[in-house]
Amino acid sequence: MSRIESIAPSPEAVAESLAEQRYVADEGLATAIFLAIRLGKPLLLEGAPGVGKTEAAKVIARMLGSELVRLQCYEGIDAAHALYEWNYQRQLLAIRQAGEHEIDIYDDRFLIERPLLKVLRKPDASVLLVDEIDRSDHEFEALLLEFLSDFQITIPERGTLAAAARPVVILTSNRTRDLAEALRRRCVYHWIGYPDAEREARIIALRAGDVAEATARAVARAVRDIRARPLAKPPGISEAIEWANAATVLEKGGSPWPEAFRRAIGVLVKDEEDLAYLAPDFDKIVEDALS
């Protein structure tokens, strides 16, 4: 059993380790993480923005005592940003300084590591987060597919570099487009939905700084009600935590309940049309949540 496997010997142990890192995972997520680690397969986490996909990757890295190497995807991302680049200016300078002497301009001094190469060289000490893979185009997805298949990179001037072990890889997607079936087949898949009110209250109580348990429960109930409405940008878990914190700060500053919730709404709902849509019912939402 490897070092990483010994840290996560069962789904239950994974859930306990995540809880120690103040991340509340349900059985499905804990099992998916365990299987991804044990089978040496990438973990694909899909879900709406703000449900805790990226945070899960950060916590897994901390749980394993590994460095989190993040590759943030965006439209137009290419191999140079994901794999490696040559430092051309340094190469030119070295050639000038070498004069008549021979010099290898393709050694490590001139190689700039990007996230995939960095993880490839330290697979036991790194967790690779490929964040928002759905933002990249199909060409980049195909490039990534090759990496995830064999965990190796071919550098024409240096040959093929392969990882000594299979690194832990986590991909996240907000599902703004469908990912290739070939990519999905290589991954352990898990959909992260919004938590129910009880679990979200536990998350808020665990992660918010100085929020009373009753406040956490009220925020979770109100947020559940708000998410059930047809908003353009439903609030995520992080917004719910921030709302609980902000309302608590206002309450301690002299703004009574439920006025503190109303005044702090800007940290929960961040779209003008959504605010206008909620305005007629907001007092009732908070009143029901506090009852």
TrEMBL record:
One of its GO terms (molecular function) is ATP binding. It comes from the Bacteria. SUPFAM superfamilies: P-loop containing nucleoside triphosphate hydrolases (SSF52540). This is ATPase. Residues 39-193 form the AAA+ ATPase domain. It comes from Aquibium oceanicum. Signal peptide: none annotated. InterPro entries: AAA+_ATPase, ATPase_dyneun-rel_AAA, CbbQ/NirQ/NorQ/GpvN, P-loop_NTPase. Transmembrane segments: none annotated.
